Amino acid sequence: MTPMTEVAGRRLALSNLDKVLYPDSGFTKGQLLHYYATTSEPLLAQLRDRPVSFLRYPDGPGGQRFFTKNVPPGTPEWVRTAEVPHSDGSQRQVVVQDLPSLIWAANLVTEFHTPQWRDGAHGRADRLVLDLDPGAPATVVECCEVALWLRERLAGDGLEAFVKTSGSKGLHLLASIRPTASDRVTAYAKRLAVAAERELPALVTHRMTRSLRPGKVFVDFSQNAAAKTTATPYTVRARPEPTVSAPLTWDEVAGCGTPEQLVVLAGEVAGRLERYGDLLAPLYEEGRAGELPS
Predict the structure, then answer these.
(1) How confident is the model at residue 90 (pLDDT cuts 50, 70, 90)?
(2) What average pLDDT does range 167-172 have in this prediction?
C-alpha cells in the first residue's frame, strides 16, 4: 500500500521514492520530489495561472515518454483545472497553483511546459520567448553569441531580456510584455529571428529546415503561438542527467567558453538561488512589462 504524506494540509500518495530515474547519476524519484519542494517558490511563480502540458517519463529518461495536455486520471478534486480552447475542441488542463498541486504533479514524473498566456486570457501573451537551438557542430556557446545580439536588439525596442538554459542543448530568451495577441507576438519574434539571420548569416537561421541548421543556431520564434508551449523555468528535463531549465546571469552567457559551463543540474539550483535569488522574478514585477513596437 502506498504511504500517505501530508503536504501543506493536503494528503498525497507519493510512490516509489527510491526508484532511480537517472541511472548515470543515481538520482531518484525521492530526490526529484525534494528538488521540486525546495524550488517551489520560483517555480510556482512561473506556473501560476498557466495551463500545464506534461511530458511524462515515469521510468526515467530512458523509458517511455509521452506528452499530454489532458487532466490525468485520478487527479484530486482540489487541483485546479481550466477549460482551454484547441483546434479540435476545448479540453481541461491542470493549472498548478500551490505546493500540494506541484508535488502531486511531480509525483507523476513530469517535465512542466506552459504557454505564454494565462488562464482567462487565451491567445493574449504576457511573455515573449525565443528558443535558440544549436545544430551540431554548433553548441550552446554559439547560442550565447546569438543571445547577446538579441538582447541588444530587444533593448533597442524597449524590452528587457532574461535568459535561461533550455535544460537540453540551447537557451531560451524571455521578455515581459503587456498582454498582446499571440499572432502579433509571433510576427514580431519572427522579425527578430530574420534580423538575426541577416546580421549573423554564418551563425543563425530562422528556418526550421534541417538541411539549413548544421553549424547554425535556429532562432525558433514559433513558441509564441497560442497553441505552443515552452519548458517552464526550473523544470527538470528528461535528459540523461537531471538537468534543469535554469535562469542564468548575462555575465555567465557572455563568459561561456564551453557547453559544460551552462549545464545546471537539479542539485545545483538551491545554491544558485541562494547566490543569485530568482533571476526571473523581474518578469512579473509591476511596471516591467514592455510594449511591442508597431
Answers:
(1) confident
(2) 97
2 — pLDDT class (breaks 50, 70, 90): low
| Strand-pair partners of 82 | 93
Q: How far apart are CA 4 and CA 14, in angstroms?
A: 7
Check pLDDT > 60 for residue 20: yes
- Average pLDDT value for residue range 132-148: 97
d(C-alpha 37, C-alpha 105), whole Å: 11
Identify the band that residue 287 occupies on the pLDDT scale cut at 50, 70 and 90.
confident
Yes or no: say if 143 and 74 are a contact pair by the CB < 8 Å rule.
no
pLDDT band of residue 1 (cuts 50, 70, 90) is low
Asked whether the predicted pLDDT for residue 52 surpasses 90, the reply is: yes
Q: Residue by residue, what is the 3-state secondary structure of the chain?
A: CCCEEEECCEEEECCCCCCEEECCCCEEHHHHHHHHHHCHHHHHHHHCCCEEEEEECCCCCCCCCEEECCCCCCCCCCCCEEEECCCCCCEEEEECCCHHHHHHHHHCCEEEEECCECCCCCCEEEEEEEEEEECCCCCHHHHHHHHHHHHHHHHHCCCCEEEEECCCCCEEEEEEEEEEEHHHHHHHHHHHHHHHHHHCCCCEECCCCHHHCCCCEEEECHHHCCCCCEECCCCECCCCCCEECCEECHHHHHCCCCHHHHCCEHHHHHHHHHHHCCCCHHHHCCCCCECCCC
Look at residues 233, 241, 239, 238 and name the one whose alpha carbon lies nearest to residue 272: 233
What the block records as the C-alpha cell of 288 is 516591467
Pick left, alpha or beta for residue 49 (phi over 0 → left; psi -120 to 50 → alpha; otherwise beta): left
Model confidence at 86: pLDDT above 90:
no
CB-based contacts of 62, cutoff 8 Å, min separation 6:
23
